[in-house]
Amino acid sequence: MAEVIEVTGLVIASGPIGEYDKRVVLLTKELGKISAFARGARKPGSPLMAACESFAFGIFVIYPGRSSYTIEKASINNYFRELATDLQGAYYGYYFLELADYYARENENEGEMLSLLYYSLRALLDKRIPNKLVRYVYELKQLVINGQYPEFFCCTNCGQTQNLTGFSILSNGVVCEQCKNQKGVMPISPATLYTLQYVVTTKSDRLFSFTVKDEVLSELSAVMHRCMDAYVDRKMKSLDMLAAVEDFS
Questions:
Q1: Parent domain of 111
Q2: Confidence (pTM)
Q3: What is the DSSP string of 31-68?
């Protein structure tokens, strides 16, 4: 048997294979995104049954095969089971998993992305923080981690760092008061600008230590919808379900 490997990871997708097995996709710190089989994980009483459900986070002991890995055992630190009782929160969570699956790569150190995903899921369980705020923070930080995001610290037209009062996705960032009279510029408040700058520069474990007023949340929504349309070339299926749940709510 191949030498076993111990990885820290979170299940971002899971599905049945055959009569009793499961195929899971893990986002791991050490190996990036990997596919793994869990033999017998659907059998009643299997120690891998709960460990192979989406959102399960912990230590996975795996060994490599020809085209994928096999999970030998797992020690789960957090199942995020509370999401099962919160339909809206669960669909936000599935969207986070899908976006992580979109960005993550095999054989890359994805510790930063894993940390962001973990703390974002935890934030969904904190009723003091609006789910929409968690979403916009998560989206922006994903863009930052993957190196393609707007400029939020100086005017993209003239370079000055003061009086940044507008945002333009066409200009790929913020613009100052003197330069904002151009097509496609939306106004943003100082509070919104500060929030965007904070997300860009702050580590994932400290991202969700604040909340914002409704007007700031509305501006963040407008900024991030423009950003995701510009930088992400795939429509996430989970967004349709999330929109339906929010409309129903």
A1: 87-248
A2: 0.95
A3: TEEEEEEETTTTSTT-TTTGGGSTT-EEEEEEEE-SSS
